[in-house]
């Protein structure tokens, strides 16, 4: 570029300063330069270019300047603060760091955003340059001289060095009308005066230029055209006019639309459209009500309010808080005048248009529906940004359905209902030509509003931000409708009419205007200036009436022009609406109304919105429904719905599986659970028959096959996600339109017939049924899919039809994820297709692994439940046209990603239910039961249950509260504690909450009354107040919400108070979820939700919910609690046993240790100390268990809240275990101390004898040595013998005193039976010699001394006698084992032994108290047992006295004394000998005893932690293990022992398991023995009990030196250890080892798994409840009563009844407890209060025992001397595999294995 290039751009030789006043307008002809106060360098070029030094001070002016530069004012930069008026933009954040001389920086608030915009613009232009192959089309540097030319720097002339070109150019902050350019400072220009010249242009424009000061490297270039590509050339200009090479950048400005959506933060959604599910996501903004701080929050706030149908949705704006206190008046006024005052404002129409353009079709549809409910105008023609194109919005209006009552209807109560897009209505359009002083939109609002009910249908300038200039919404055509209500005093127009409103000047939007002219019945043109532009009003090809609307007072109004146009258009006076000077707004509006009213009286052309699409296509206006996926979905839906003529017939033909057959199946299923019609039939036979009937019905279903429309439906469902969504929407639209049409006809017929009700009653009933059957929606097709799946699941796994249906659940799972509702409860059949729903939710679990919270609403029908949920969450449930919700539907709402952690879940599931107290169901007998079932189900599934109460009907309110209280009581009893919120609707008063304090108290009183009544009905009388069953605060749990509509529908908008109140309620719900995210009600996974659905539904199908509820989650949580508690209990018992071992060692070693440490410490002190220590140890152990229990219940995982009601039982068990252990320990310590005390005198005698004998031996040695005669060994032995005999004659031998053990036992027996009465006293007194008792086998004698007992004995005596005999034999066996253990211990007798023995008898009798046993039986049994015990204990006492006789004890060491005598005589070294004797006579027995004592607990640990640990973890697992092995062994004798001698069988089974476990060659037992062998050397005194006699013998006559003795001892100890190890290695007889252990591991395991030992009173199945102090007994699997010897009285055939089925039937029973009277099985708890028998009437129930019964029917009958049972054929077909599967299902083992 030569110097003249600069001069060409300056016309008048003047140049404006870059710091002139901000109010001065830019002149685009003379170049205006923009300055900035700091330079910058580009980070990317720092490595390539040496940064130039720069200064903020302007360079000195040269002496010679060009004429243009001489005229310009100097440019300076403020060093203190940036010039805010010059529009300067700093680029330091993008272009690099300041040079070293820079001292000041200027920051902007949008640095990050500008950088992003700059990079986007750069990338855009670079890509564009690549496409066009134009090297200049780049935002980077482009030189005038090719970079390929190699010009060395040293050859560049001086003048060229001074005109260095600007560096790399970048564009940032690219907007629609401005661009900020940044460049690098020219290098090597230090000290040189220069200016920066920018020239820019776009196609079709004259180039423009700017002069920029060298102090800056940025410039803001304004007044650009939107969406145009500009070329910017930047050069360096010297004072001599020489120019550098140009640096070039090409930038495309944003369109106005792009700019606006960028400001709104929606730029990414222009392509990736916003979806409805995204908008409905729950986020943190839901909880805030803070003012909007940025434009990017506007769309989301608008959408949130709109989804909640809030009429203030269009009034969103950014909050501004100017600091007016520090402002001067001038700056304040300047701020008001400044156009920047609108920088944070967006016109509502621009916001609406932008959001619409960024939304997909389904979100647009929902927006339009909500806007229509708010009585907002909705888009008809939507402009596409700043272009002239527009789109007809037809699809988005498809959901709008309106009801209205035109005055032409003959029936004053009739109404018209229809889709607004299909309704033919006259369209009246309002447009503006040129300028108009009248506000068209505001006037329209007044036209459409009553004076008492004004509403802003159209946005106007006096609304919030309505005066903000529109940027993209000009050309928008809005439409609204006026629909009469039928009241002539209220209606403005008697007929419905559509109103269209074109935004902007029609001269700019000819396409839209032409479209309106061809679709409208009339066009009202607002115009004041009737000049040349009026030629655009061409009505030659339009049938619309033209109306001119003008203001006579307008300055631009010209009468002559007006007359000419009126004449030109040949308008009548009636077509001219003029506002005169004396006319106010009311009169003017009334004039407009009259004009429209007159129009409506004529024969106007009418057109539906759907018909308008044809006109739109003629004008080449695209229609939103022309979208490919939408059209495909429509075609698929039309292919199905086009064939529908009569809905009931169509449903019967096309959807046959959900017809009568499905309803019969549902009834059969309930009958299968309740068995109401079984009568006197055999229950199992009746169940088998029901199963066959169900099978036939399923076969009938399968016989129908898949209809062609259903195949088309499944095919469409299997398509792409988008096409499927459109297809389902079209299905809903088409079916709703069809249903409305049919319902309208049926309602008219119904009205006619009702005029003569008595004569037409049958026909009326038929019509009523037709109206009920006339509903058809997409949910019916989805229901049919479910039935197809359930029917196919009954086929074999490899069947083709079954395989074809396997993908259906996944399709519905995907639908749920996409936000579609799915039917949970079939409202027509009143049942849950459980298999279908379960599989859908399983697929959902596999797809997402989400955690969910559940919100449900309950209430009377037609009280706004669905509307409440829709308003809260912005959803629309699938409700067929003309009907309220039937059944229950579930829908998922996602939680925003950044809010999931705070809320504690991923989704919220919303369940909408049918109304309670439905008039349609009220006529049915079981309507109340139906309501109770539904309420129980949804309350059980919910985290929060919303009770919706309409205040108009108090009676209905009481009815629903009664139902709800039942539901909450049931949930409390089964471990669920949902939150309850009462919503009182139609409470308009702002003081409702305060004024209704008394009503809330009354409500609480009613709730308390109903709780008591419900508790009585549910047999849970401990609940007396509503707060007993749930946490309820009248102040926090009650919400008052005003009415929905603000005025009279259909023109009434939604009440703003309603939306705001519902929003507050929604916030409270979300807050509750936040509060409970880590509490006792954690969120569910889908698998957990499945289990709750299954268990709740199965329970409600029984009549008695609480006793029928069975939930695997509860069972699993209970099993985990039992497992943990068992671990704590065993740790407690193990620790106590370890302490007891040490205590017994202390007692045994007392005389030795005490004499050395505390001579004054006696045995009484030892006993006192040990008791104190025991108390402390037990208290410590109990506290540890209780602390563990408390900590366990505070955990968040494991569903601990479900077993909250068992906590007290386990607390009591812990205390009970402590008490029992304390008694046992103290008895054992007292016994040990008493025995030790008796041994003191004996030990003293022995010690004296030993000392005497030692002295005698020493004297003998001395005498023999003095004789000096050599003596042989024989002679020495003879001398020793003489001395021994003489000494024995001298010694006094006094042994232990003999006790009368028999008498002691007799006295204890007498004391034990002393409370039983005179008869027992006589029996005990009659015992002459207790030793003679119990020698003969014990026989149960039946003595019936009353008439009842004689009858009972005759009827049931044999059975009762056999069971009692079995129990007696078991007790006797247990007592014999106890006595044998004590005898094997070779200790002395102590009275506590008999206390323990009689306790065993009492304990077992208590466990079997269901047997008819008398006090006579108890006394006889105890006398028999005590007789045997007396003989054994008496002999044990004699043996102990004999073993501890002083003479005998001395005699047994005679040989050792003789050997010592000879050693001493010969003066032999005794070290080795004494060490060996000490090792093998003293240490070895002590070591053996220690290892034996320590082995027991280790064996228990091994069993509890080894491979079979799960078998002993809980009683349920133990039962499963036994039954599994029984089934595998397939041995009848084993089954008989298990049934008839359960406890004995369990003991043997455990013992066999231990023998099997420790007989393996894995070294388990050997390793334990070796471990304890190595451990004993560390603390001998504490751990070992050394035999006193052997110890005295070893140290008598011991002359060994201590050092040598110690060395020898070490060697012999090693030898002993090797000897023991070798013995342990050989293993030996494991059975004998286990029998000889003092701590019986098998007994500990037995006590652990036997629990309370109680058995089912009907079938004798053992109780599996955890802990010892549980208040309810239960078992997982019951068995046929015939297996337990129950038979029919007359036929003597074994019975097949299973008690779990009987308790759900009408059957009756009698037993000894009922005194022979018959009682209903359902009332069994009135007799057996502590038993819980959960009903299970399924045909698969107890398949395990049914298989066993069928397998061994003959064997059982022979064993019981009865006739074989008549078994159902189904039982005989059960295989062993099915029996095993039934067992696994009963104990939930499959679930455990999966986990």
From TrEMBL:
Region of interest: Disordered: 1-171
Domain VLIG-type G: 849-1094
Positions with biased composition (Polar residues): 15-28, 63-74, 98-109
Organism domain of life: Eukaryota
Keywords: Coiled coil
Fibronectin type-III domain sequence ranges: 165-258
CDD domains reported in the protein's UniProt record: FN3 (cd00063)
GO MF, one example: GTP binding
UniProt cross-references to Pfam families, sorted A to Z: fn3 (PF00041), URGCP (PF25496), URGCP_9th (PF25974), URGCP_GTPase (PF25683)
Entry keyword Amino-acid biosynthesis: no
Coiled coil: 676-703
Biased composition (Basic and acidic residues): 34-47, 157-171
Regions of compositional bias (Acidic residues) in chain numbering: 110-129
UniProt similarity note: Belongs to the TRAFAC class dynamin-like GTPase superfamily. Very large inducible GTPase (VLIG) family.
Protein name stated in the entry: Interferon-induced very large GTPase 1-like
């Amino acid at each position: 570029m030569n110097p003249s290039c600069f001069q060409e751009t300056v016309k008048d030789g003047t140049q404006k300063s870059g710091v002139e006043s901000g109010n001065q307008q830019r002149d685009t002809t003379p170049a205006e330069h923009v300055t900035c106060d700091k330079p910058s360098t580009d980070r990317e070029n720092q490595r390539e270019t040496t940064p130039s030094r720069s200064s903020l001070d302007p360079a000195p002016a040269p002496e010679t300047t060009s004429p243009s530069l001489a005229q310009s004012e100097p440019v300076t930069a403020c060093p203190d603060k940036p010039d805010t008026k010059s529009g300067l933009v700093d680029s330091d954040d993008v272009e690099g760091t300041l040079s070293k001389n820079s001292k000041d920086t200027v920051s902007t608030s949008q640095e990050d955003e500008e950088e992003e915009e700059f990079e986007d613009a750069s990338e855009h232009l670079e890509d564009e340059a690549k496409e066009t192959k134009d090297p200049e089309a780049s935002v980077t540097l482009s030189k005038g001289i090719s970079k390929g030319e190699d010009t060395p720097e040293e050859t560049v002339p001086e003048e060229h060095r001074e005109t260095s070109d600007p560096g790399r150019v970048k564009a940032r902050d690219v907007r629609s009308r401005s661009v900020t350019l940044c460049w690098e400072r020219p290098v090597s220009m230090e000290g040189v005066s220069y200016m920066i010249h920018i020239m820019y242009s776009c196609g079709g424009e004259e180039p423009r230029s700017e002069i920029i000061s060298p102090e800056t490297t940025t410039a803001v270039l304004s007044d650009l055209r939107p969406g145009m590509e500009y070329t910017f050339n930047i050069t360096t200009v010297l004072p001599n006019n020489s120019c550098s090479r140009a640096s070039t950048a090409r930038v495309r400005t944003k369109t106005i639309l792009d700019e606006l959506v960028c400001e709104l933060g929606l730029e990414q959604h222009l392509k990736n459209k916003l979806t409805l599910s995204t908008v409905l996501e729950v986020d943190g903004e839901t909880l805030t009500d803070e003012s909007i701080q940025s434009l990017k929050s506007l769309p989301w706030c608008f959408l949130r309010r709109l989804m909640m149908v809030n009429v203030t949705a269009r009034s969103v704006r950014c909050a501004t808080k100017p600091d007016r206190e520090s402002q001067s008046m001038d700056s304040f006024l300047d701020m008001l005048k400044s156009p920047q005052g609108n920088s944070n404002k967006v016109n509502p129409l621009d916001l609406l248009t932008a959001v619409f353009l960024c939304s997909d079709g389904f979100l647009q549809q929902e927006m339009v529906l909500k806007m229509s409910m708010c009585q907002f105008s909705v888009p008809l023609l939507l402009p596409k940004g700043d272009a002239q194109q527009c789109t007809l919005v037809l699809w988005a209006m498809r959901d709008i359905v309106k009801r209205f009552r035109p005055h032409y209807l003959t029936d004053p109560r009739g109404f018209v209902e229809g889709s607004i897009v299909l309704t033919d209505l006259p369209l009246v359009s309002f447009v503006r030509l040129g300028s108009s002083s009248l506000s068209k939109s505001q006037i329209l609002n007044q036209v459409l509003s009553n004076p008492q009910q004004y509403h802003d249908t159209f946005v106007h300038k006096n609304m919030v931000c309505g005066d903000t200039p529109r940027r993209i919404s000009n050309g928008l055509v809005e439409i609204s409708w006026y629909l009469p209500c039928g009241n002539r005093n209220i209606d403005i127009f008697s007929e419905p009419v559509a109103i269209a409103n074109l935004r902007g000047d029609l001269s700019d939007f000819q396409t839209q205007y032409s479209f309106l002219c061809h679709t409208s019945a009339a066009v009202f043109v607002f115009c004041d200036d009737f000049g040349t532009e009026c030629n655009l009003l061409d009505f030659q090809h339009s049938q619309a009436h033209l109306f001119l609307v003008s203001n006579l007072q307008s300055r631009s109004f010209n009468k002559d022009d007006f007359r000419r146009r009126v004449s030109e258009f040949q308008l009548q006076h009636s077509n001219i609406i003029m506002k005169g000077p004396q006319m106010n707004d009311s009169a003017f509006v009334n004039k407009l109304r009259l004009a429209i009213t007159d129009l409506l009286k004529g024969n106007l052309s009418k057109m539906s919105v759907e018909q308008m699409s044809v006109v739109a296509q003629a004008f080449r206006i695209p229609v939103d429904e022309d979208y490919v996926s939408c059209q495909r979905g429509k075609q698929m839906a039309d292919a199905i719905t086009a064939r529908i003529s009569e809905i009931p017939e169509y449903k019967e033909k096309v959807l046959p599986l959900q017809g009568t057959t499905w309803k019969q199946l549902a009834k059969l299923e309930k009958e299968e659970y309740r068995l109401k019609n079984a009568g006197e039939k055999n229950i199992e036979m009746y169940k088998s028959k029901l199963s066959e009937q169900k099978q036939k019905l399923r076969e009938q279903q399968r016989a129908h096959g898949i209809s062609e429309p259903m195949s088309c439906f499944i095919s469409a469902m299997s398509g792409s996600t988008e096409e499927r969504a459109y297809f389902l929407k079209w299905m809903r639209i088409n079916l709703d339109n069809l249903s409305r049409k049919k319902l309208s006809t049926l309602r008219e017929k119904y009205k006619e017939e009702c005029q003569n009700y008595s004569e037409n009653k049958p026909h009326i009933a038929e019509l009523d049924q037709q109206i009920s059957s006339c509903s058809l929606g997409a949910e019916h097709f989805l229901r049919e899919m479910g039935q197809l799946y359930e029917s196919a699941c009954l086929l074999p796994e490899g069947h083709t039809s079954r395989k074809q249906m396997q993908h259906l659940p996944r399709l519905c799972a995907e639908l749920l994820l996409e936000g579609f509702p799915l039917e949970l409860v079939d409202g027509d059949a009143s049942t849950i297709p459980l298999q279908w729903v379960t599989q859908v939710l399983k697929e959902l679990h596999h797809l997402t692994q989400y955690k969910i919270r559940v919100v449900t609403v309950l209430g009377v029908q037609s009280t706004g439940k669905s509307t409440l949920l829709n308003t809260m969450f912005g959803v629309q449930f699938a409700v067929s046209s003309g009907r309220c919700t039937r059944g229950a539907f579930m829908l998922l709402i996602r939680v925003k990603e950044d809010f999931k952690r705070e809320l504690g879940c991923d989704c919220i599931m919303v369940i909408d239910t049918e109304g309670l107290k439905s008039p349609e169901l009220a006529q049915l007998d079981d309507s109340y039961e139906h309501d109770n079932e539904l309420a129980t189900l949804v309350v059980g599934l919910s985290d929060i249950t919303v009770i919706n109460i309409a205040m108009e009907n108090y009676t209905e309110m009481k009815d629903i509260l009664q139902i709800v209280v039942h539901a909450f009581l049931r949930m409390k009893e089964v471990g669920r504690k949902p939150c309850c919120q009462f919503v009182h609707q139609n409470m308009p008063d702002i003081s409702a909450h305060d004024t209704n304090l008394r009503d809330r108290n009354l409500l609480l009183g009613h709730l308390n009354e109903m709780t008591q009544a419900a508790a009585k009905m549910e047999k849970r009388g401990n609940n007396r107040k509503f707060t007993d069953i749930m946490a309820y605060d009248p102040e926090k749990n009650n919400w008052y919400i005003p009415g929905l509509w603000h005025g009279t529908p259909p023109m009434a908008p939604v009440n703003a108070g309603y939306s705001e109140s519902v929003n507050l309620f929604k916030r409270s719900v979300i807050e509750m979820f936040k509060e409970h995210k880590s509490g006792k009600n954690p969120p569910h996974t889908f698998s957990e939700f499945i289990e709750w659905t299954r268990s709740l539904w199965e329970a409600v199908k029984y009549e008695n919910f609480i006793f029928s509820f069975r939930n695997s989650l509860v069972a699993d949580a209970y099993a985990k609690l039992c497992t943990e508690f068992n671990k704590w209990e065993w740790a407690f018992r193990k620790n106590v046993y370890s302490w007891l071992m040490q205590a017994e060692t202390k007692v045994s070693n007392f005389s030795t240790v005490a004499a050395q440490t505390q001579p004054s410490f006696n045995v009484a002190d030892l006993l006192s100390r040990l008791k104190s220590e025991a108390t402390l140890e037990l208290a410590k152990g109990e506290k540890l268990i209780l602390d563990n229990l408390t900590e366990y219940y505070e955990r968040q995982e494991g569903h601990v809240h479900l077993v909250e009601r068992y906590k007290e039982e386990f607390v009591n068990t812990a205390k009970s275990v402590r008490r029992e252990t304390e008694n046992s320990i103290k008895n054992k310590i007292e016994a040990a101390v008493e025995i030790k005390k008796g041994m003191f005198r004996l030990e003293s005698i022995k010690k004296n004898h030993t000392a005497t004998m030692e002295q005698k031996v020493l004297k003998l040695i001395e005498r023999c040595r003095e004789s000096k005669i050599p003596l042989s060994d024989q002679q020495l032995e003879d001398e020793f013998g003489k001395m021994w005999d003489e000494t024995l004659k001298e010694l006094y031998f006094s042994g232990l005193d003999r006790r009368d053990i028999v008498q002691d036992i007799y006295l204890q027996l007498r004391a034990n039976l002393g409370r039983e009465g005179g008869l027992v006293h006589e029996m005990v007194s009659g015992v002459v010699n207790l030793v003679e008792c119990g020698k003969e086998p014990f026989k149960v004698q039946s003595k019936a001394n009353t008439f009842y007992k004689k009858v009972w004995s005759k009827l049931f005596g044999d059975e009762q006698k056999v069971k009692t005999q079995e129990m007696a034999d078991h007790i006797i066996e247990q007592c014999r084992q106890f006595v044998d253990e004590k005898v094997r211990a070779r200790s002395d007798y102590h009275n506590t032994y008999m206390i323990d023995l009689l306790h065993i008898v009492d304990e077992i009798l208590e466990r079997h108290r269901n047997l008819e046993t008398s006090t006579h039986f108890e006394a006889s049994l105890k006398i028999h047992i005590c007789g045997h015990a007396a003989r054994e204990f008496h002999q044990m006492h004699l043996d102990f006295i004999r073993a501890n006789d002083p003479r005998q004890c001395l005699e047994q060491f005679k040989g050792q004394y003789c050997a010592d005598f000879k050693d001493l005589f010969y003066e032999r070294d005794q070290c080795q000998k004494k060490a060996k004797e000490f090792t093998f006579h003293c240490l070895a027995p002590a070591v053996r005893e220690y290892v034996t004592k320590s082995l027991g607990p280790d064996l228990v640990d091994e069993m509890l932690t080894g491979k079979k640990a799960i078998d002993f973890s809980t009683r349920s697992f133990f039962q499963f293990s036994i039954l599994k092995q029984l089934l595998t062994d397939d041995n009848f004798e084993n089954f008989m022992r298990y049934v008839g001698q359960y406890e004995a069988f369990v003991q043997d089974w455990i013992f066999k398991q231990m023998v099997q476990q420790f007989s393996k060659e894995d070294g388990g037992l050997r390793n334990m023995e070796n471990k304890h062998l190595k451990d004993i050397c560390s603390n001998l005194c504490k751990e070992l009990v050394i035999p006193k006699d052997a110890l005295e013998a070893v140290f008598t006559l011991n002359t060994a030196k201590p050092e040598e003795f110690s060395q020898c001892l070490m060697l012999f100890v090693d030898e002993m250890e090797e000897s023991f190890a070798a013995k342990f290695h050989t293993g030996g007889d494991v059975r004998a080892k286990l029998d000889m252990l003092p701590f019986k591991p098998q007994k500990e395991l037995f006590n652990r798994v036997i629990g309370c030992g109680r058995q089912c009173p009907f079938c004798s199945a053992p109780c599996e409840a955890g802990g010892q102090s549980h208040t309810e007994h239960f078992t997982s699997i019951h068995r046929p009563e015939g297996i337990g010897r129950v038979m029919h009285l007359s036929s003597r055939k074994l019975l097949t009844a299973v008690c779990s089925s009987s308790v759900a039937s009408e059957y009756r029973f009698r037993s000894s407890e009922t005194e022979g009277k018959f009682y209903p099985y359902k009332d069994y708890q009135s007799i057996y209060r502590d038993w819980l028998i959960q009903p299970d009437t399924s045909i698969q129930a107890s398949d395990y025992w049914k298989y066993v019964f069928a397998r061994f029917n003959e064997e059982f009958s022979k064993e019981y001397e009865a006739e074989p049972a008549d078994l159902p054929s189904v039982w005989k077909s059960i295989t062993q595999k099915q029996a095993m599967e039934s067992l696994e299902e009963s104990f939930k083992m499959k679930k455990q294995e999966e986990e």
